[in-house]
Design a protein that fits this description.
The chain is an alpha/beta fold. It folds into three domains: 9-234, Aldolase class I (TIM Barrel); 238-331 and 470-494, Rossmann fold, CATH 3.40.50.10860; 339-462, 3-Layer(aba) Sandwich (Rossmann fold). Helices cover 36% and strands 21% of the residues. The chain is built from 17 helices and 22 strands. It has helices spanning 18-26, 48-58, 81-94, 103-109, 135-142, 160-172, 189-198, 220-226, 251-261, 276-285, 310-315, 333-343, 360-371, 383-392, 449-456, 464-480, 486-501; strands spanning 9-14, 34-38, 64-67, 98-102, 121-128, 149-155, 178-184, 203-206, 237-243, 266-272, 290-293, 307-308, 320-324, 327-331, 352-356, 375-379, 396-397, 406-407, 410-413, 433-434, 437-440, 460-462. The strands form four sheets. It has an eight-stranded parallel beta sheet. Strand 4 (98-102), helix 4 (103-109) and strand 5 (121-128) form a beta-alpha-beta unit. Helix 6 runs parallel beside helix 7 (189-198). The longest helix has 17 residues, at 464-480. The two termini are 37 Å apart. 49% of the residues are buried.
């Protein structure tokens, strides 16, 4: 069949027609990846062999895995096993070098079906879209099959399910048949990114962020350019961001770009979980060197630390952890970032500022600006939060939306109002008060409605992107001791936002 060397990434192509599959492949210019053809998405199987053959010729005979997953195994094909086998045989005759047949089909018709795809090589796959079960027993059963690769995927309910995958792959990496194992879903992202490092012969990616066919599947571009999955080794240090929505964080794009620019052999992972203890066990097991902390764990992480910076202690929130010589040490880089970006526009000492929001970000801003001598007016939708924070930093709390004729030097939005997908919202009516500077900590979208209205009124504006880069740069410097490449970090975030929008 030729092409015996497997690529490190197989890009999954899915569409209603063969032309759609080819168009997706065509977007991957210069890619050295192989392709998994999800034929179960096709709406018309007539003349399939000829159409696939012509596609392969135009694509210069790429290495492909033909898959036609039945509904019973989590796919879209509603036909029986015999029809499934016939479709896969058509793909082999057209030139596909590999076939993926799920274990459910093998169980339905017997082992003899595996001989019907010669001369193609066979992957036998198992998928569990509800949980990650005990993987060892599944592998031992499938390893006895006369196939070249066994694929086992289970849905990750928490980060520690990635560790099940890691243990299985590391233990079986040098055995035959070869093993590919993944944890599906947002919490399973680490397994996709570390699969090759752990010993899998390859991993899977989507053609773009719009064509993911499995939960948690990332695009080939992200896998290669942001995470460098095919260049990781046993010396690569691990960092990450932990939060309940970490899978959509922009920090991986920013921090991985910085690591690459400074030639630091490190990888920054998205670590999504609903339990902080889950992450702590995960990070210890994989020997993390540091991590960022986002909602809702900035307060809860403090009890897990061996040392906390005095400012972070006063704020009562930590967003940065470095692990050195076994000690977990915490900082709050949000506070310094607020001071950094605002001080470029106005003198902080003696300035009068309206702070919207008394949550984690608002607390960091309040403590930092109060320490610089700013006069703060604090408001929140929950008045008790504003009152409490105001007392702690010797500031004044005011009722939410009581802004008529207020005159301040700066307005700081530390609420999520205006964030996608609710970008039409604004936390405040600027026509009701006077201000010189408007600073919105929201960075998605880059120009919120609040900032657009402020700019339209001739006010100085500060985007959340500047804040994100400033706090991220300080994190990078804490972890590495190197000067952060700030311009490149900002560029990486802008590219990530453009990629997500495109």
């Amino acid at each position: 069949m030729g092409k015996s060397v497997l690529p490190s990434i197989f890009v999954t192509l899915s569409g209603a027609s063969v032309a759609a599959l080819e168009n997706q492949a065509g977007d991957l210019v210069g890619s050295s990846a192989g392709y998994e053809l999800r034929l179960d998405f096709l709406q018309d199987f007539s003349d399939l062999e000829s159409r696939l053959h012509q596609m392969f010729l135009r694509m210069h005979n790429p290495l492909t895995i033909a898959t036609c997953r039945r509904v019973e195994a989590g796919g879209h094909f509603r036909g029986g096993v015999e029809e499934q086998v016939a479709i896969l045989q058509s793909a082999v005759r057209a030139g596909s070098q590999w076939v993926d047949l799920e274990i459910e089909s093998v169980d339905a018709v017997g082992l003899g079906v595996l001989k019907q795809f010669a001369p193609a090589k066979v992957i036998c796959s198992y998928h569990n879209y509800r949980k990650t079960p005990s993987l060892g027993a599944i592998y031992r059963r499938m390893a006895r099959l006369p196939v070249q690769v066994v694929k086992i995927a289970g849905f990750a309910r928490d980060l520690q399910d990635n560790l099940k995958v890691a243990r299985l792959v590391r233990k079986r990496a040098r055995r035959r048949p070869k093993l590919v194992s993944l944890a599906l879903g947002p919490s399973g992202l680490p397994s996709r990114l570390l699969a090759i490092r752990w010993g899998c012969p390859f991993t899977y990616a989507s053609a773009s962020n719009h064509f993911a066919v499995a939960p948690g599947q990332l695009s080939a571009e992200l896998m290669r350019s942001v995470y460098r999955v095919d260049r990781l080794d046993r010396h690569t240090h691990l960092y990450g961001v932990v939060g309940s929505h970490a899978s959509i964080s922009l920090s991986p794009a920013m921090q991985n770009a910085a690591f690459q620019a400074k030639h630091v052999n490190a990888l920054y992972l998205p670590c999504q979980t609903n339990r902080l203890k889950d992450f702590l066990a995960f990070a210890r097991r994989l020997d993390f060197r540091g991590f960022s902390v986002t909602m809702p764990y900035k307060r809860a992480i403090i009890s897990a630390l061996d040392w906390l910076d005095p400012l972070a202690t006063r704020i009562g929130a930590c967003n940065t952890v470095a692990i050195q010589h076994g000690k977990w040490m915490g900082w709050n880089t949000d506070a310094a970032a607020v001071v950094e970006v605002l001080s470029k526009r106005l003198r902080l000492e003696g300035s009068r500022m309206l702070l919207l929001g008394a949550g984690g970000a608002g607390r960091a801003a309040a403590y930092a600006l109060s320490a610089e001598g700013a006069e703060l007016l604090i408001t929140d939708g929950q008045p008790a939060l504003a009152d409490r924070l105001a007392r702690m930093v010797s500031a004044q709390s005011i009722p939410w939306d009581d802004f008529d004729n207020l005159d301040v030097d700066a307005i700081i939005n530390a609420t999520p109002v205006g964030m996608l997908p609710h970008s039409e919202a604004s936390p405040i009516d600027l026509s009701r008060l006077r201000a010189r500077v408007v600073f919105d900590l929201v960075y998605s979208p880059l120009e919120t409605r609040l900032l657009a209205e402020a700019r339209g009124s001739g006010l100085t504006t500060i985007t959340g992107l500047e804040m994100l880069v400033a706090q991220g740069a300080r994190q990078f410097e804490i972890w590495t001791g190197l000067a952060a490449p700030r311009a490149l970090m900002e560029q990486a975030i802008r590219q990530a936002l453009d990629f997500a929008a495109g």
